[in-house]
Amino acid sequence: MEFSFGFIQTSGHKCSASWIRLLFFCSMLSTWTSVQGWSYFHSSTFMTWEEARTWCRDHYTDMVAIQNQEEIEHLKSWLNFTTGYYWIGIRKLNDTWTWVGTNKALTPEATNWAKGEPNNGKARGSSGNSEDCVEMYIKRDKEEGKWNDESCLKKKTALCYSAACKSDSCQYGECVETINSHECACNPGFYGDKCDQVVTCNKDEVRAPDNGKVTCTHKYGDFAFDSSCQYSCKEGFQLSMAGPQRCTATGSWSEQPPTCQLVQCPTLTRPSRGSMKCNDPLGSSSYRSTCAFACNEGYVLDGSPSNTLQCESSGSWNASQPSCVAVQCPAIQDLGNGIVSCEGDADERFSYGKTCSFSCAPGYKLVGPNRVSCTSAAEWSEKTPHCEAITCKTPEGGAHLFTDCSEPLSKLLINSTCSFTCEPGFELQGVQTVKCSDDGRWSEDIPSCKAVRCLVLEDPESGSVNCSNAEPLFNTQCTFTCGEDSILKGDKIRTCDHHGNWTGDQPTCEAVSPSATVVASSVAAGGAAVTSGLALALWLLKRLRKKASKFELDSNSNIDTPTAVYKSSIDSLI
Fold this sequence. Notes:
This protein is α+β, with helices and mostly antiparallel strands. It has six domains: 17-162, Mannose-Binding Protein A, Chain A (Roll), CATH 3.10.100.10; 203-262, Complement Module, domain 1, CATH 2.10.70; 274-326, Complement Module, domain 1, CATH 2.10.70; 338-389, Complement Module, domain 1, CATH 2.10.70.10; 401-451, Ribbon (Complement Module, domain 1); 463-573, Complement Module, domain 1 (Ribbon), CATH 2.10.70.10. It contains six helices and 38 strands. Strands 1, 2, 3, 4, 5, 6, 7, 8 and 9 form a nine-stranded mixed β-sheet that branches. Strands 14-15-17 form a three-stranded antiparallel β-sheet, with no helix packed on it. A three-stranded antiparallel β-sheet has the order 19-20-22, with no helix packed on it. It is rod-shaped.
């Protein structure tokens, strides 16, 4: 309780001394008053708005927050012994007049401004301070109980209140202060004068579903407001609703009892280029269903660690659904000096069923197949070919052939040339030069060497010829002989040379002259004319010796030498 001593500042005037005793008595009676709802208080000293609010909050509940005209009339009757200006709990915050106790904006219907207010001091002239606080007139001839905006630094009487509501006034609600009373605003789900009664729900509406169970918790009593019933299902089943069943403030359950439904997994589809076989013991694509996947020839499963999927209690398959992708053959590298051309895009050109073709650059030939296909075994149908430089085979001629090529024989490359010659005594049969063509063949047949042939020699008249070969070829030697009554005249042996010509001249066989016969007869008879016969013999001997040295035969000759015969004949003649 506050007491007031000395003079009280009211409307800018002091009370006279004759009023001191009365004021002291009045202040003792008037600084405190009580009603059934709450109690009002005011200070006996003047203070700024901030000091007034601090004083109210330190000693009581807060500054008075006037809510209606009834409250104003009550204050007027309570403060009927004095005239004054009192700070109340309203001030301007962010350009808005606000109830400081609740921090709520002042509504137009709750205002009680004096005429022309608020004016921020403009009517009387501004003192330089903003008028952001509110005072209330009490016991004035004009505008009693009205509000005026005033500078918060001015000093006025603090007007306070003390709440009547206690901590146990309302059990499950809010105590609302009124002038002559207080009442309980019950929280949802509660009722009664003190909000101590709780709403209940029908427990018969709580029942366990098939393949499931229910468990309830009660906060304010069995099946009372805010009781919660949680449902659950056996493995492989799921609730038709996700949340619990709650008892609401209206006494009804928030949900109907749920059911337990068989878990369903997403429907699977047969993969392209493959097959799917499912087993559904409880229902199609439901809990415990299994599906096995397989792929067509040339394709394999991809995208899943297993070829069999199972529907789990979570409603998901235990693995992702696989797909069928073509098997991949080893990548084919580019051919050296060649080109590889494969079917399909870059990511499928080496997959099952695709074909790759091969070709070589000019001057090279393909060794191996010109195309291969990727098989279901992830292997190419044939070994990958390669490109080799086009070459012609080494020219192989017969005996006596000499070959001269533009490139070494170990490289007879295209456009290379080879020229041919024969040994002496042989002549070339065919072209002299050949060229290696683009197809790896020589432009002409390889020539051969044929021995030089001489003309066939004829037997001399009254004689014969005997040769070393049946054909008159190079190096063939022929020997000539004459009959008994003839002698050989000319070369006895002729040889076929490398030009196809016989050496020497063709010999002849000449008959023995009559003079020789006469000499022989004369010698035998011892006839005369010895001198003339001897001279003839000597001439023949000289001639035969000269011929004998000319017709020497080589060691390989089959013709017997006639030298001894000639000598014996001559000796006998001599």
